[in-house]
Amino acid sequence: MNKSHLLGLYDPAYAASYDRKFLTSDIARADAEHEVSLLHRWLVPGTQWLDIACGTGFFLARFPAIEREGLDLSPAMLELARKANPGVRFHEGSFLDEHPEWRDRWGLVSCMWYAYGLVDTVRDIERLVANLARWTSFEGRCFVPLADPSLIAGVDLPRTLASPWPGVTSITGIIWNYAEDGGSKVHAHQIAPHVECMREMFERHFAAVELETYPPAIPGWEGCRRALVATEKRR
Strand 160-161 vs strand 173-180: parallel, antiparallel, or unpaired? Predict the structure, then answer.
């Protein structure tokens, strides 16, 4: 994960505009509110919640009565998160670090939006998934909204393909860029594993892995976002 690139991308100006563009805009609001409704279902009194790549702390701020903490790489994003969540503990660092003090601790572990795709390889995503599972309690839940490559590319992406050669060809995912501000801000070479690939990663650590389908963000849209919900952590 290119830390210097990410810190340059998530600078104070970008952090200040983040919620407005990706969480509260007309195109984003419905998805964010659906995620809040799911979190309301799971965050019962006594639940401890860890939000990975917490950004501005937008979601954490919606639940002031819940014991919660956040982790993010960007100081600019964390500055806003602390302002939005007074008294909450935030950690500056990478979600690829193990943080052994969090092992089996959290009743809910979330990784909102598509931050997991900012790593360098699919193996890094496997490493992150192992961390998310490690930090989730045995009675807890892991929640990860998915960057669905079929929605990003606008084409159906099969998991396996016929091959004239011996063996099986499988599609792991896609690599994609997202450029803003005339190309001055670029989320470069992001990884979006196939949804079934993500499910398989989580099934190594959880006995129950389900997909949550969102309502259409805008009436008439055919493609809907999905999220992964993992429970029954394996011992």
Answer: unpaired
Scanning 58-178, the segments in alpha helix (DSSP H) are 75-84, 122-135, 149-153
- Tell me the β-bridge partners of 185: 180
Q: Which residue's entry shows tokens 């790593």?
A: 119
According to DSSP, the β-strands at 48-52 and 106-111 are parallel
Report the pLDDT value the prediction gives residue 15, as an integer from 0 to 100.
Answer: 96
- Counting Cα atoms < 13 Å in the Cβ hemisphere of 111 gives 24
Domains within the chain, CATH numbers bracketed: 3-147+194-233 (3.40.50.150)
Residue 221 has pLDDT above 80, yes or no: no
Nearest one of 192, 201, 212 to 234, comparing CA atoms: 201
Q: What is the mean pLDDT of residues 14-31?
A: 95
Query: 88 pairs with which residues across the strands?
Result: none
Contact by Cβ (8 Å): 215, 30: yes
Residues 170-198: tens digit of each pLDDT: 999 999 999 998 888 999 999 999 999 99
What distance in Å separates the CA atoms of residue 37 and residue 149, rounded to the nearest whole number?
A: 25
Q: Three-class SS of residue 210?
A: strand
Residues 106-154 pLDDT 10s: 999 999 989 999 999 999 999 999 999 999 999 999 999 999 999 999 9
Q: How many CA atoms lie within 13 A of 43 on its CB side?
A: 23
How many C-beta atoms surround the C-beta of residue 69 within 10 A?
19
User: Angle at Cα 52 formed by Cα 47 and Cα 53, nearest 5°?
Assistant: 145
